[in-house]
Amino acid sequence: MISVVPRPEAPSIPHWTVRSSVEEGVRLGLEYFTAFTVVALVFTAPAFILEMRGVGGFPKFAADILGNAAAQICILCSTFQALAGRTPNVAETFWQIQRPNLVKLLSFSVVQALLVMVGFVLFAIPGLYLMTLWAVAMPALVAIEDMEFVEAFRQSASLTKGRRWRVLGVVLACMLTALIVFGLASLTVRFVPIAIEQTELRTMVLWPVTAIVAALLHPVSAVLYVQLRQEKEELTVEEIVEPFY
User: Fold this and answer.
1) What is the Cα–Cα distance from 143 to 240, expressed in whole angstroms?
2) Cα(94)–Cα(97) distance, rounded to whole angstroms?
3) What is the rounded distance in angstroms from the CA atom of residue 105 to the CA atom of residue 101?
4) Which helix (H) or strand (E) holds 89?
5) Dist. CA 237–CA 86, nearest whole Å
């Protein structure tokens, strides 16, 4: 008698919402808050020092973009590790910067940030559209090291297709959260009566606030990437984050 091997069932695809994506990302950010915040502080320190010394222009702009990009890369990698069941600490999160495709990741982050900025300069809608279209491009490039620039943009566009209103909701929720946090921090500084001290204090306050926002919100894009691949490609979380075990 020939035995028939039963065909394995496709993995169940959990229904995801704007709320579930943001909540899961923020939960991971809170769970590994110390590691993520410390690493973000380290990589954004050069921009903070330049601003405190009154250095602006291109050096400050470059330090801002590269520092935030480095922090994002490390936090995304550690978020994938957390989803793989590991417990990233400060040292492990920091040394995620030693990735073989680091130059490509940093370059990609700069290109993506500049394109989105151009979209916002032209008008808000193109900027929001690009942020939605490429919402998971960086997580894709982090998760698949041999992926190229164009392929990362294409995968993000493919994964978000048919789900872009929901993805836009995630983007807007993260933007609103950041605006509220930065707004409250700036409002607190306004109580200082001397204008010069206000400027210096604002710089000192916004540095840790920026790190905290990065720690809480960068994991959201990694979570969204996993959820979209689960839904579109019928993969399990374990299959998606396998390189990070």
Assistant:
1) 8
2) 6
3) 6
4) none
5) 13
Query: What CA–CA distance (Å, rounded) separates 114 from 239?
Result: 32
Please give the Cα distance from 220 to 39 (Å, whole number): 17
Question: What tokens were used for 127?
Answer: 């900027």
Domain map (residue ranges) of the chain: 18-244
Q: Give the burial class of 12: count Cβ atoms within 10 A of its Cβ; 0-12 exposed, 13-18 middle, 19 or more buried.
A: exposed
Sorted by sequence, the CB contacts under 8 Å of residue 174 that are 6+ apart come out as 22, 217, 220
Residues in the chain, total: 245
Angle at 101 between CA 159 and CA 86, to 5 degrees: 70
| Whether the Cβ atoms of residue 209 and residue 51 lie closer than 8 Å to each other | no
From first to last of its 245 residues, the chain has per-residue pLDDT tens of 444 444 444 344 467 899 999 999 999 999 999 999 999 999 999 999 999 888 988 899 999 999 999 999 999 999 999 999 999 999 999 999 999 899 999 999 999 988 888 888 777 788 899 999 999 999 999 999 889 989 999 999 999 999 999 999 999 999 999 999 998 888 877 776 655 566 778 888 899 999 999 999 999 999 999 999 999 998 889 999 998 87
Q: How deeply is 204 buried, as exposed, middle or buried, from its count of CB atoms within 10 A (0-12, 13-18, 19+)? A: middle
Which pLDDT score, from 0 to 100, does residue 200 have?
Answer: 77
Contact, 99 vs 105, CB < 8 A? yes
Q: Are 50 and 60 in contact (CB under 8 A)?
A: yes
CB 119 within 8 A of CB 129: yes
Query: 7: burial class by Cβ within 10 Å (0-12, 13-18, 19+)?
Result: exposed
